[in-house]
Amino acid sequence: MLQLYIDADACPVKEESYRVAARHSLPVFVVTCLPMRDPTRPGVTFVPVAEGPDIADDWIAERIGTGDICVTDDIPLAARCVRNGALVVNTRGRFLHAGNIGEILATRDLLERLRGDGTLPEGTGGGPAPYTKKDRSQFLQQMEQTVRAAMKLRDEAAN
To answer: What is the CATH number of the domain that holds 110?
Structure first.
C-alpha cells in the first residue's frame, strides 16, 4: 500500500500534505523528535521519536519502500529514500529522484565543506529564502503529480 511519510520537524506543508493524502486515501506518518500537536486526523499517524541526530530520518528510511512518498527538505534523508525506491518532494515542490539526487547531495556536501573551511565568498549562504505562497502552490502541484505517478507505478506493478 502506498504511504506518505512526512519529516515533520520544521515542515511548513503538513496541512497541505494531509489534504492531498486524504484526497487519495493514503496513510500518513508524521515523524518528529520535536514537541508537536498530534494531528488527530483519520489516516494520519503521529510518530514521536527520541531526540538525537538522524533518529527521525532513520525511522523513515527503515520503513519507506518502493513507490512510497516522503516530504522532506533533508537531502541525505531524501537520498536514502530514493535508494529505497521511494519518491521525494521537498517543501518547495522540487521532485527529488534517482536522476537528480546525486548532484543535489554532492552540491550540498560541497557547500557544507566550503562553509566549514570558511572559503565561501562573503554574503554567500545565510539559509533558505523565506517561504512564499508560490512555494506552497508549487508544492501542492508537485505533490499531486507525485501521488498520481506513484499510484500509476503501483497499478502497473500489480498487473
So the answer is: 3.40.50
